Every structure is written in structure tokens, then in C-alpha cells.
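In the laboratory, one determines a bound structure by crystallizing the protein with its ligand and collecting diffraction data. In a computational setting the workflow is compressed into a single prediction: the sequence and the ligand go in, and a structural description comes out. We illustrate the idea with arginine.
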Amino acid sequence: MKKIVLAYSGGLDTSCCLKWLQNKGFEVICFSANLGSEFSPADLKKRAHLSGAAKTYVKDLQKEFSDEYVALALKAGAIYEGKYVLSTALGRPLIAKHLVDIARKEKADFVAHGCTGKGNDQVRFEVTTAILAPKIKTIAPLREWELNSREEEIDYARKHKIPIKSTKEKLYSVDKNIWGVSVEGGALEDIGKEPPENSYYFVKPLKKALNQEVYLEIEFKRGLPIKLNGKSLDFLSLISKLNKAGSQCGVGRTDVIEDRVIGIKSREIYEAPAAWILHTAHKELEALTLDRETLFFKEAISFKYAQIIYQGLWFTELKNSLDAFINQTQKVVSGTIGIKLYKGNIVITKRISVNSLYKKELATYGRGDKFDRTLAEGFIKLWAIPFQVKN
Ligand code: ARG
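The predicted complex, in C-alpha cell form:
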């Protein structure tokens, strides 16, 4: 029997994939990566077994995800089209890397995923597999099978006695990890309407958000957060604490029309309180500690880095080269940023850094001004020359 390793989430799509691959004559080995979804390993194994898996691997990759993927995206300031912190996108190369490792270990020539033929995730999984293991072939049941809608998949699941999860699963397609939740499909496809209440996943709708300001202090060292409110925390725990605090205050939800790799525009809702709090604080600290030209240049790098992540090009030379630049810039990005959360807002309240380039004696309009204003006139004359010569 041909062996195939399936990236299995326990959701509707991958559960149907499992059965479909079996019916095509494959011995299916499931691999579930835990990047912060809510299913227990025991539950996943049980579900996979009930759906017919020959063997199931469950790996807790939260730490690897936070330290080797999310941390890089944070330092890079990677936000796609200004609204998406790339939570789903960042997880795909990591999952694909482990999928390939398991395929090698199991001597399987095939891997499979439950992504649709219209999405970005198929691109991310398959490009990563192609780069890391060119000989392994990918099968994408959703691009081949005869099921054409979620309703048909639900019928297929019922017919084959595949356990289906919550009703939410039927309403929307949801992908969750520690860096954020992506919600799409169903009622959200109507872009003329505000997202319905049932599309809220863990961030509180503004009218139900805490009616009180929540103050936080985040200390960064070389571009990464190391303390929350004075207490040392590892990155993963810090993210989880900020997700809790932010979600109570209705922070970190975006409603996005985004440009997919394959060319279509789609609408997605993202909930990512910790990611938005950390990006906001990190950007503020960079504004304080990076000189103007480095800061401006890094804007362009952030833009490109976000595209790289979105487009599935994580394991590339370009990404590694940009990391070298980014890490160099982060050497001075240390200090503390104070923040206040209130009804969806993230407000900066404090900025402290030993590397601060803000000099009050230069900026002040009050007493103690050290800025030599007589230099300004000559400077402005020179500044204008390139635009005057053509007259
Ligand atoms: N549009 C997002 C991306 O391309 C999320 C994709 C997965 N979303 C989902 N709801 N299943 O990264």
C-alpha cells in the first residue's frame, strides 16, 4: 500500500480528506501540529483513529513556532496589507517542514493537505515541500474531489460517520494558533455587511468589552519582549497573557479585503490581540531607537517581509538575507513601552530606552534649548536646490 502523510487538523476538510485518501487506496498517516489550537492531543488522536488513520503523530510546536517564526515576523514588523499579522501564513512552512520530516521517517513518497484550490495555504505547503523535499509528491484532495461546497462535505462526513465538531465549523472556516485566529466564509462573504456577532471568536465585541482602561508595560531586549509588567516571561507565555488582556478590551480584530497569491480578493476576519499589542509597542520602540534612515529603509523591508510570509516563500535566500538586516537593526531596540488598552484601542503611554535618540534639549520649545536654529536657514536653501535648478 502507498503511504501518505496528511496534515490533519481534526476539522471538517482534513477529516474528509482522510477518508477520501483511504478510499483511493492510501495508507494514511496523520500529522497534527499544535500551534495553539484548542484540541487536546488525545482528542485529535481519537478523531483521526475514528476517521480511519493508520497512525497519528501529534507534535506540540508552539515553542518552535513562537521562537523561530513569530519572533522573526515581530522583529520584521511584518503585517500584510496593513491589516493581517500573518498568523495562519507563518504556521504553514513550519507544519510543512515537520510533514516532510515525518514522510521521510515513515518512508512515504506522498504528503497531503486539506487546503482548497483557491487559497494561499496550498501554495505555502507545496512550495515549502518543493523546496525542502523535491522528490515528495503532494496530493490535495480538495482540488480533485467531487465535493463542491461545505454542505456537500458535511453530507460526505455524515455518510462516512466522520465526527464533525461544533456548529461554528459549519458556519465559518476557522484557523487558530497562538498568533491569531482567521475566520472566513459563510456570512462574511457578503462584504456589504458588518460581520455578524457569531463571527467573534475570542475578542470581545466593542460594546461588550471591558469598560475600563488596562495599563501594561512591555520590556523589549533586542527587538523581542522579555517582561510584562516587570515580570520576566518566555515569549509564548507573554503572547498568551497579552491575548487574554487584549481580547477582554476588544483589541486586535481586523476585517480585511486581502489579495491572495492566486489573484483573487477575499474577505477575512482576524483576531490577534497579542500580535497587535506587540507590533504596536515594538514599532514605537523602533521609532525611538532607530535613526531616521534605518527606520525608513526598514519600512520597505517590513513590506517585503510580509509578502514573503504571505506568499509562502519562508525557506528562501531572500528571507534569510532580510533577517540579517533586521537582526542588525534590532541590536538597539531595547527598552520599555507603556500601553493602555481601552475598547479596541492600543494607546502608548510611556517610552523608555537607554538607546533613545530623542533628546529633549534638541526638541524642546521651552528652556534649555540646545538646538542651533541659525543653521536652519542655510540648510533649507540647500534642501531646495534640486527643485529650483529646473526653473
Ligand atoms: N487568508 C488567510 C491567509 O491566507 C487565512 C487562511 C486560512 N483561513 C481560514 N479561515 N481557514 O493566511
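The two ends are 79 Å apart (CA to CA). Keep in mind that any predicted model is a hypothesis to be tested, not a measurement.
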